[in-house]
Amino acid sequence: MKWTDDRGGNVEDRRGLGGGAVVGGGLGTLIIAAIIFFLGGDPSTILSSGAGSGSPRTEQRELTENDKKIGEMVDMMGKWNIITWDQVFKENGMTYTPPKIILFSETTQSGCGTAQSAMGPFYCPADQSVYMDMSFFNELQQKFGAKVTEFTIAYVLAHEVGHHVQTLLGTTQKVDQLRRSGRYSEAEMNRVSVATELQADFYAGVWAKRTDSDKHILEPGDIQSAIEAAEAVGDDNIQRRSQGYVNQESFTHGSSAQRKEWFMKGYNTGDIRQGDTFNQLLK
């Protein structure tokens, strides 16, 4: 992946600061978190249930040179997202407002509750912010079999920004209304969740296509690394690795094949209007 001089200025780096309350959810919460280790979604239920009493974290540390380089890279990627989505929204007669990107270590407070490393990167609609503990990428490589590159991080961030796009377009709110109505079974809501996540993968593909057309950031192997990351966090791969079998009815993010399919559809078309996963998957 080629670097540019773009910087967004919408990154808040909390990695050198003392965190929030120590999470005291216990082993059960950690097991659940491992099973649903994912890219994206509204984590408020798990986060809230996992936030227990504990003493506040006060230790601080200096960021290393590598830490600072990672922060600079994420800032650059954040700007790429701003430029691309601002243009997409303008083309469709809308105004884009970027999310805040928050880097943290171990635990921090979010608008959706206490954020912790075990949850992986996520988007919080309540404060319209993306939360990323960079240790997730070690887990992605060591536990879920993805080869992590700089563009892997770009894909993950683009997926989370895709959830922000859904919030700006009202999709997140509609899904939340369905969930709160109580009229739908868990299996039905799981299918809605899959459609939501695959659309965020589609948006990540749109972002990759359009950003490369503008900035020429892609190098050989970059798209493959994004595909590998998408496949690694497919529900079937996660379930097979965590519990030894696959239960399709419990999917909430889509299979590895689906995640690859929708990312590539976004990348091949570059057209946000081609990403109606809901009509295609909920017939």
From TrEMBL:
Task: Give its localization.
Answer: Membrane
Transmembrane: is it a keyword of this entry? yes
Q: Where are the transmembrane segments?
A: 20-39
Q: Which domain of life is it from?
A: Bacteria
| Membrane-related topology note | Single-pass membrane protein
Q: Name one Pfam family in it.
A: Zn_peptidase
Which keywords does this Swiss-Prot/TrEMBL entry list?
Membrane, Transmembrane, Transmembrane helix
Main subcellular location: membrane
Name under which the protein is recorded: Neutral zinc metallopeptidase
Say which species the protein is native to. Answer: Chryseobacterium ginsengisoli
InterPro entries, sorted: Uncharacterised_pept_Zn_put (IPR007343)
